[in-house]
Design a protein that fits this description.
By secondary structure, the chain is mainly alpha-helical. It has one domain (about 5-365): Sodium/glucose cotransporter (Up-down Bundle), CATH 1.20.1730. The protein has 21 helices and no strands. Helix 9 (about 130-145) packs across helix 10 (about 145-160) and helix 17 packs across helix 18 (about 345-365). The protein is globular. It starts with a helix and ends with a helix.
């Protein structure tokens, strides 16, 4: 790396920490700390939602390098569809209720037990572990640090300012990170196009599997990812930003505008990923973007690109880190202990605990895409349908809804563990399907009774 690259990255880190700590203090109530006082403007909504959606950018590069345009069909298209449905049907309702989190939502509709169980599930869904792993891998590759130290450093530098500023710090830093992530990939596409020709010429040089929407995988595998995208409906980042919006109108419009920005960023990342697949050779597929960038970009521009990669990942780490801290500190510890003091101090304790757990997860499962897949396949079936039912007129007793939450997760988890032991899934079915089926059957039986 040239000293100009270090200058770009150093400038980014300094500006990031300044924005993170700017006007932050340890004072403030939980609504201010968790939802920025529910006064989030439309620009702030769009910037923070878009920036926090791409933390697994190295996983996107890995998948595009290995499977081509399949990436768009599993990591992009399904989320446009479900994001739009969320904007139309759920966003106005979520903004109108006083709840601060998804576990609050469950507690209000089903009771304390369901609220605690939903919080346990959210801990895994919102874990920053995949993104801490991504950032650790990037620092390991570019700086030569050990992976363990890189992961630890990534955790500290991405979460330290949340301790004081909460959600306001997340939004402020997302403004900087939003700009850098688009700038970095725009530079990479410009130089790749200039050196290697247009994307059309690259397209013809790709193997057939990279031009196939399935990427050589089974249709069932693609459909599982499509169903995992239902995660959007119970994504705690979506819920938090919707609840924080200054109005229903801002929440709905903000999501729709964000989808447009997602489409643009997906076009940038997948196109540059195809350039990497066609023009570079690396055994380390998650590093496809940095390898391509290091071969094309001049000093300082390469530094801006790396700062853009850092921004893309770190914007998700701080958001998910805050949500995990809220879930563990407020929605579990504070609720169980029923203290008469405010929940913010419990959230700060939760931040430390969840950071430690995320580091352990990142070290245990060293694959970003695998982390997404395992967590989504096992947890989503247990929380999706019970959450959607809260927006209907269907009434289900708490004991039945707890059963409909726990049994699907156990089913999917056992299904997954069996496959690790036997080398195949029972009946060739991915664990997501039996988990969701069990949830649906319990709900149907409960409603009939």
């Amino acid at each position: 790396m040239h000293y100009l690259d270090w200058l770009a990255i150093g400038g980014y880190i300094i500006l990031l920490l300044w924005l993170g700590f700017y006007k932050s203090s340890k004072k403030g109530d939980e609504k201010d700390f968790i939802l920025a006082g529910r006064k989030l403007s439309l620009p702030g909504f769009v910037v923070t939602l878009v920036a926090t959606w791409y933390g697994g950018i190295l996983g996107v590069g890995e998948n595009t390098y290995n499977f081509g345009i399949q990436t768009w069909f599993i990591f992009a298209l399904p989320y446009y569809v479900f994001g739009l449905l969320f904007a139309i049907y759920l966003a106005p309702r979520i903004r109108n209720v006083p709840h601060l989190s998804i576990p609050d939502h469950f507690r209000n509709h089903y009771g304390q037990g369901a609220g605690i169980i939903s919080a346990l599930f959210i801990l895994f869904l919102a874990s920053p572990a995949p993104y801490i792993l991504s950032l650790g891998i990037l620092l390991h590759f570019t700086l030569g640090w050990s992976l363990q130290f890189s992961i630890l450093f990534s955790t500290i530098i991405s979460l330290i300012y949340i301790w004081f500023g909460g959600f306001r710090s997340v939004v402020r830093t997302d403004i900087l990170q939003f700009g850098l992530m688009f700038a970095g990939f725009s530079f990479l596409l410009f130089f790749a196009w200039n050196v290697h020709g247009s994307p059309i010429s690259i397209w013809t040089s790709l193997p057939d599997s990279h031009r196939n929407p399935t990427g050589g995988n089974s249709l069932q595998y693609i459909l599982v990812w499509f169903f995992i995208a239902l995660w959007t409906f119970i994504d705690p980042g979506f819920y938090q930003r919707t609840a924080a919006a200054a109005s229903q109108k801002i929440a709905r419009a903000g999501i729709i505008i964000s989808i447009c920005f997602w489409f643009i960023f997906d076009a940038l990342t997948i196109t540059t990923g195809l350039y990497a697949a066609s023009m570079t050779i690396t055994k380390n597929a998650p590093m496809a973007y940095p390898v391509l960038a290091s071969s094309l970009l001049p000093p300082f521009i390469y530094g801006i690109f790396l700062a853009g990669l850092l921004s893309t990942i770190m914007s998700t780490i701080d958001s998910n880190g805050l949500i995990s801290a809220i879930t563990f500190g407020r929605d579990i510890l504070w609720r169980i202990q029923d203290k008469k003091v405010g929940s913010v101090e419990y959230i700060r304790k939760g931040l430390v605990v969840m950071a430690f757990i995320a580091v352990m997860l990142a070290l245990s499962i060293p694959s970003v895409v695998k982390l997404w897949y395992v967590i989504g396949s096992i947890i989503v079936p247990g929380i999706l349908i019970p959450f959607l039912i809260t927006f209907s007129k269907i009434s289900i007793p708490e004991n039945k809804i707890i059963l409909a939450m726990v049994l699907p997760v156990l089913t999917a988890g056992i299904w997954f563990l069996y496959s690790r032991i036997s080398g195949h899934y029972p009946g060739g079915l991915e664990p997501f399907y039996p988990g969701l089926l069990v949830s649906l059957l319990i709900i149907i039986i409960s409603v009939r009774k």
